[in-house]
């Protein structure tokens, strides 16, 4: 069935995102530890570690939003949802998903547009384009769009979600 395949792809993407989050946390810890050790033992520091950690941190944050969204852990106003009957609750859930879809679409568009301006700029301490900072926004937005479409399909097509 189509919906099962889409759910499987979404689960695989969420697992991949969780692995990438773990890798970013580990990379940041290693870089910070390296910086401290080199500074204390050798008396100097690598300036590129600050920029590398900034880049990794931004990717970690946006990947974290993707993971939290999949697990329904993002902040939302649900006080009124629980006071309404199930059909009204489904309607509010659909409205929330549609509003989120619009926001995530804006993320993709803005991330791509800003990355075009940043492609010529490089970090002052490493030969990497600052474009990668903004590609994180577009990537997270695209993943969030996919997740939200899956949630809408589940809400509308799966009997227990009706």
From TrEMBL:
It holds the Pfam family DctQ. It is found in: Cell inner membrane. Its main location: membrane. Coiled coil: none annotated. GO terms for cellular component: plasma membrane. Keywords: Cell inner membrane, Cell membrane, Membrane, Transmembrane, Transmembrane helix, Transport. One of its GO terms (biological process) is C4-dicarboxylate transport. InterPro entries: DctQ, TRAP_DctQ. The chain crosses the membrane at residues 12-36, 56-74, 94-112, 132-158. It is a multi-pass membrane protein. Residues 28-155 form the Tripartite ATP-independent periplasmic transporters DctQ component domain. GO terms for molecular function: transmembrane transporter activity. Belongs to the TRAP transporter small permease family. PANTHER family: 2,3-DIKETO-L-GULONATE TRAP TRANSPORTER SMALL PERMEASE PROTEIN YIAM (PTHR35011:SF2). This is Tripartite ATP-independent periplasmic transporters DctQ component domain-containing protein. It comes from Vecturithrix granuli.
């Amino acid at each position: 069935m189509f919906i099962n395949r889409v759910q499987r792809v979404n689960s695989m993407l969420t697992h991949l995102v969780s692995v990438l989050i773990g890798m970013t946390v580990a990379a940041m810890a290693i870089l910070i530890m390296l910086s401290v050790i080199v500074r204390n033992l050798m008396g100097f520091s690598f300036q590129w570690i600050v920029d590398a950690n900034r880049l990794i941190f931004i990717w970690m944050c946006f990947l974290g939003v993707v993971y939290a969204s999949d697990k329904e852990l993002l902040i939302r106003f649900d006080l009124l949802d629980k006071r309404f009957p199930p059909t009204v609750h489904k309607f509010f859930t659909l409205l929330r998903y549609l509003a989120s879809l619009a926001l995530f679409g804006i993320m993709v568009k803005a991330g791509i547009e800003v990355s075009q301006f940043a492609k010529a700029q490089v970090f002052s301490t490493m030969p990497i384009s600052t474009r990668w900072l903004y590609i994180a926004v577009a990537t997270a937005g695209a993943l969030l769009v996919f997740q939200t479409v899956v949630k809408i399909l589940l809400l509308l097509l799966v009997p227990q979600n009706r």
